[in-house]
Amino acid sequence: MEYHTERLILRPWQECDREPFAALNANPEVMRYFLNPLTREESDKMAGVIKQKMALHGWGLWAVEEKSSGAFTGFVGLNIPSYELPFSPVIEIGWRLDKPYWGKGYAPEAARKALAIGFEQYGIDEIVAFTALENIPSQRVMEKIGMMRCEEFDHPLVPQNHPLQRHILYRIARVSLKELAAMPDKKTA
Ligand SMILES: CC(C)(COP(=O)(O)OP(=O)(O)OC[C@H]1O[C@@H](n2cnc3c(N)ncnc32)[C@H](O)[C@@H]1OP(=O)(O)O)[C@@H](O)C(=O)NCCC(=O)NCCS
User: Fold this and answer.
1) How far apart are CA 105 and CA 84, in angstroms?
2) What is the number of the ligand 1 atom nearest to the C-alpha of 102?
3) Atom of ligand 1 at shortest distance to CA of 138?
4) Cis before residue 89, ω within 30 degrees of 0?
């Protein structure tokens, strides 16, 4: 199943995505808020896991294609973290785009669609996002799509005292405050 936004297509992964995905995963600038860039093998393994999870749930971390060029730009979508977090169990929204596609509002555009799919099509009640405290670009995306800044926590997979250890959690609920405010009975209550 693929989904369209104004400028992007969120679609299942194709074999030909592996090469541009490996290139962006090997780029230290794209991966500066992660512990390490990925090797080709690690990148292919990640693409395989993403594909498997999408086959299982119907939703997942979609490959994001730019309509104007047909290029694979990276991924945006929903995921169940494979490790325990202080606020588990959760469904997270995440994004990773290659550098040429940054700064165009692509991540928020695709993320709004991913939230709508999760909430409206799959009935998910709440979606979270988290990132290293230093990752301001990612937090900007969380804010642009209406997520609420919540607590800081130490990421369990990042070594103690590492500069990327401290993370920030954002949340958004299906019944968002905006929707509640729009309900006549709540307005007068
Ligand atoms: C985080 C990311 C997905 C944002 O995607 P995007 O499509 O560029 O999002 P936007 O265009 O809305 O820009 C969001 C913020 O990114 C930053 N940004 C934009 N262009 C940038 C550029 N060329 N270089 C560095 N940062 C830039 C700005 O802080 C911007 O916020 P602003 O619009 O308030 O100025 C993208 O930067 C990315 O893939 N980064 C690497 C992977 C990553 O960190 N993923 C998140 C892990 S939790």
Assistant:
1) 31
2) 8
3) 1
4) yes
CA angle 118–125–82, rounded 5-degree value: 70
Q: Which two tokens stand for residue 132?
A: 């290293």
Which residue type occupies 100?
A: P
Domain 3-188 top-level CATH class: alpha beta
Q: How far is the CA of 130 from the centre of ligand 1 (A)?
A: 14
CB distance 135 to ligand 1 below 6 Å: yes
C-alpha 159 to ligand 1 mean position (Å) = 25
d(CA 171, CA 146): 9
The span from the CA of 128 to the CA of 14, in Å, is 27
Domain range annotation of the chain: 3-188
pLDDT in tens, 60-90: 999 999 999 999 999 999 999 999 999 999 9
